[in-house]
Amino acid sequence: MNHSALRQRTGAYARGEDARRRILEAALEMFATVGYEGASTRHLAERAGVNLPAIQYYFGSKEGLYRAVIEQIVQHNEAHMAPLAVRLRAVLDRSDAAADELLDLLCEILEAFVALISGGPQNESRRLLYARAEIECTVGLELLHKTGMRQVFEPCLALVARVLGRSAEDQAVVLRTVALLGQVTIFCNRGVREALGLDLFSEERVHAVQALVRSQTQAVMRDAMAALRQTEATGGR
Question: In order of start, what are the domains of the chain with their CATH numbers?
Answer without folding.
Answer: 1-60 (1.10.10.60), 69-233 (1.10.357.10)
